[in-house]
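Q: what sequence does this backbone want?
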C-alpha cells in the first residue's frame, strides 16, 4: 500500500478515546491528548501557570518523564502546565513546531535535522532519552522467526514518519543483516504513524514487520500477539531517541517560560531515573496495560538513558546514518541546530 493511502487510514494525531480518557484522568486535566481529533478546546491553565502546548509522540516509554512530571505536579511547581497533543511520529511533531502551532515538540532529532536542512528554524534545546528505544515486531504466528529470514524476500516494513528515528533505525536494522534498505525490489517502507497504528498495520497484514516501542512490545509479547524481531539498542550505542525541539522565534520571545519548563523537565527526568516502580504505574495507566508489564519494560532500560544532554557524538552518529540512507544531504550546522543555554552546565557538551 502506498504511503499516501496509508496516511489516509492512519491520520496524524489519532488517539483512541480509551487512551484519551486514561491520560486525562491520570494527569488531572493538566495534559490532554488528541485535542484536534476530539474537537475539544485546549486545556485551561491553572491560575498563575503558563500553559505550554507540547506536540508529543504516541504514548511510549521514552515519554515517561512527561507523564510522571505532570502527575506529580512538577511542572506546576515551576509555574507551567502542559497541554499535550499526540501526533503520529517525529516529522509530524516537527511540523507542529515550525508552523507555529506548538512551542515545543518531543521529536526525533533526525527529523529536526531534516527540517533544518529544509530551511526551517528547528532548534534542539535538550535531550530526554539517550538511547535508541525502537524495536521491530512481527505477528506471533509470522513465518519470519529471525531477522535473517527477511533476506531474499520482498517485504514491507513500517516506520512512523519520514526522517524519524524509527525510519533511520529501520535502515540500520536491515543493514545489520545484509539488506539494502534502498533496494525497492526487496523492501517497501510504509509510514504507519504511531506505535499503535504500526501494530494495527502488522496485525492486519498491511506490513510484514512493524516498528514498536516499550512497553507495548512487552505487552504484545505477553499476550502472545506479537514477537520481537530485533531491538535497535543492540545496534546503536550513541543515540538520542527523543529530544525537545522549539523554534528560534520562541526562544527569542519566551526564554523565561522555556527555562521554567526545562527546569521541571529536568526534575521529572531525574525522578523517573530513581523511581522506576512508581513511574511504571503512571506509564501503565496512560497506556492501559498491566503495571507489571510496564515495570518489566522499564527495568530493561539502563538508568543513565534518562538524561537531558545532547552529546555531539550521538547527534553526529544520527546525522551520519541519515546521510548514509539518503535522508539527509549533509551534517547539520550544530551551532544553529543545538542550543544548550537552557541546560545546567554539567549537561552541556563543550565540543559543539
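A:
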Amino acid at each position: 500500500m502506498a504511503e499516501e493511502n496509508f496516511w489516509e487510514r492512519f491520520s496524524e494525531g489519532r488517539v483512541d478515546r480509551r487512551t484519551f480518557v486514561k491520560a486525562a484522568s491520570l494527569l488531572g486535566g493538566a495534559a490532554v491528548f488528541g485535542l484536534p481529533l476530539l474537537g475539544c478546546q485546549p486545556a485551561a491553565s491553572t491560575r498563575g501557570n503558563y500553559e505550554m502546548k507540547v506536540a508529543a509522540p504516541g504514548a511510549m516509554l521514552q515519554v515517561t518523564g512527561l507523564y510522571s512530571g505532570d502527575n506529580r505536579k512538577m511542572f506546576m511547581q515551576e509555574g507551567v502546565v502542559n497541554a499535550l497533543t499526540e501526533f503520529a511520529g517525529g516529522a509530524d511533531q516537527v511540523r507542529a513546531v515550525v508552523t507555529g502551532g506548538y512551542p515545543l515538540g518531543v521529536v526525533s532529532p533526525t527529523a529536526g535535522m531534516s527540517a533544518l536542512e529544509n530551511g526551517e528554524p528547528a532548534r534542539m534545546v535538550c535531550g530526554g532519552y539517550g538511547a535508541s528505544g525502537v524495536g521491530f515486531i512481527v505477528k506471533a504466528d509470522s513465518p519470519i522467526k529471525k531477522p535473517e529470514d527477511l533476506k531474499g524476500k520482498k517485504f514491507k516494513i513500517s516506520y512512523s514518519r519520514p526522517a524519524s528515528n524509527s525510519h533511520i533505525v529501520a535502515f540500520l536494522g536491515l543493514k545489520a543483516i545484509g539488506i539494502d534498505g534502498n533496494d525497492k525490489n526487496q523492501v517497501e517502507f510504509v509510514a504507519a504513524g504511531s506505535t499503535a497504528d504500526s501494530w494495527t498495520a502488522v496485525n492486519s497484514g498491511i506490513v510484514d514487520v512493524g516498528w514498536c516501542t516499550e512497553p507495548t512490545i512487552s505487552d504484545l509479547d505477553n499476550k502472545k500477539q506479537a514477537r520481537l524481531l530485533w531491538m535497535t539498542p543492540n545496534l546503536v550505542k550513541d543515540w538520542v531517541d527523543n529530544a525537545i525541539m522549539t523554534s528560534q522565534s520562541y526562544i527569542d520571545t519566551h526564554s523565561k517560560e522555556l527555562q521554567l519548563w526545562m527546569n521541571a523537565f529536568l526534575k521529572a527526568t531525574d525522578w523517573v531515573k530513581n523511581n522506576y516502580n512508581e513511574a511504571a504505574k503512571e506509564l501503565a495507566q496512560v497506556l492501559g496495560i498491566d503495571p507489571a508489564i510496564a515495570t518489566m519494560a522499564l527495568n530493561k532500560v539502563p538508568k543513565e538513558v534518562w538524561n537531558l544532554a545532547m552529546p555531539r557524538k550521538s547527534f553526529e552518529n544520527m546525522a551520519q546514518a541519515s546521510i548514509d540512507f539518503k535522508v539527509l544531504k549533509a551534517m547539520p550546522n550544530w551551532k544553529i541546530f543545538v542550543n544548550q543555554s537552557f541546560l545546567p552546565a554539567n549537561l552541556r557538551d563543550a565540543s559543539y
